[in-house]
Amino acid sequence: MSTGTRRRGGALEAAIYEAVFAQLEEVGYRKLTMEGIAGAARTGKAALYRRWQSKEDLVSDALRHALPNPPPRPATGSVRRDLLATLTCLRDTLVTCRGAAFKVLKEESADGKGLIHDVIRARISQPVREALYEALEQGAARGEVRPAAVTRKVANVGPALIVYDHLTEGGTMDDAQLAELVDDILLPMLRP
């Protein structure tokens, strides 16, 4: 690369993060290498190793950069709208990082522990589950949800179906599919 087109700072970092997601999509986490990321980003491995000691550190930073802030707590006054808003946030997160977060979790380790797991849990999994649980509590207080359905397991059903669909079907649910998930699966489980 000539010095006239050399990227630095934010431009180089953006190219590296983009390369991380492209490589995760192409080869998966287990086959992901610093060399492969450097090649995809059109930079040298030394540029990566100056900032990140391992692929785990690099993938964690890429996820922190790409993942949106946790979803806001539901407050629409309707359990249906609250569920849709929170599940849409989860779906959009999958789109933002090309599903890499969940692919990494699937491949990272058998025990589900590690830096990447912690990042995904803090930025996606836990906030989404908490927002959904709170939506169920508020729905029960309004009489839209039967009290026995206000459980953490029930709150996990929507995210589990979205992640399962993403991992097995390889695509992303569109708005109509999300509405079907809420209307045909979740709301019948919740009704008084």
Features of the shown structure:
192 residues; 9 helices; Arc Repressor Mutant, subunit A; Tetracycline Repressor, domain 2
Structure write-up:
It is built from 9 helices and no strands. The longest helix has 28 residues, at 115-142. The chain has helices at residues 9-27, 34-41, 45-49, 55-66, 79-96, 100-108, 115-142, 152-169, 175-190. The model has no long low-confidence stretch (mean pLDDT 84). It has 2 domains: 3-55, Homeodomain-like (Arc Repressor Mutant, subunit A); 67-190, Tetracycline Repressor, domain 2 (Orthogonal Bundle), CATH 1.10.357. The chain has 192 residues and is mainly α. Helix content is 69%, strand content 0%.
**pLDDT < 50 runs, ≥5 residues:** none
Number of strands: 0
The number of domains is: 2
Structural class: mainly alpha
What is the average of the pLDDT values?
84
Q: What's the CATH first level of the largest domain?
A: Mainly Alpha
Distance between the termini: 65 Å
Total helices: the number is 9
How large, in whole angstroms, is the Cα Rg?
A: 19 Å
Question: Do you know the CATH topology of the largest domain?
Answer: Tetracycline Repressor, domain 2
Q: What is the element string, with H for helices and E for strands? A: HHHHHHHHH
Helix percent reads 55-70%
Main beta sheet strand tally, sense and closure: none
CATH architecture of the largest domain: Orthogonal Bundle
Question: What is the general shape?
Answer: elongated
Fraction in beta strands: under 5%
